[in-house]
Model the fold of this input.
Amino acid sequence: MQNQFILLFLFFGLTSIFAQEKTKILSKDTLSLEAIDPLRPAKASFYSAILPGLGQVYNKKYWKVPLVYGAIGTSAYLFVDNQKKYNLYRNEYKNRLGGNISENPSIAKLDESRLIAAQKVFQRNRDLSALFMVGFYILNIIDANIDAALSQFNVDEKLAFKPVIIKNEISSSNDFGFALNYSF
Done:
């Protein structure tokens, strides 16, 4: 009987030893490496140069497209409006020099010096509108380039730049500052 217990113990003991599987410990890398495209900023700039706002679409910043078209469109509208008003006052001045009577009663009240001054104002506003239109177009290209370049940086939760309040041991006052933390 005692031999049977030993045999039974060995049988269950050996089966339980062989029944266990070896567990493999696999460590997963939490950081996934994304391929960095060195031509991404150039592509975004090229797309924005071809069609304003297309670089922002390429960067998936869709909310910037109405801002781009609003800025360039407003400048274009002001350019056309000031050009029309400039032509109106210039044609009136030319007609007066030619001895013709004015068709517009509101402009007929103005003398020649006022017509020349109005021409200069609208010409200046037209030129400024053209300058703003070109400036917003260039700003659109620069924004697409910088956004594409900055989108490839690894921004991780481990790196933090936070404001902190430090207790000053000497003067028993609170000091305010910034801390750059990196956790491993």
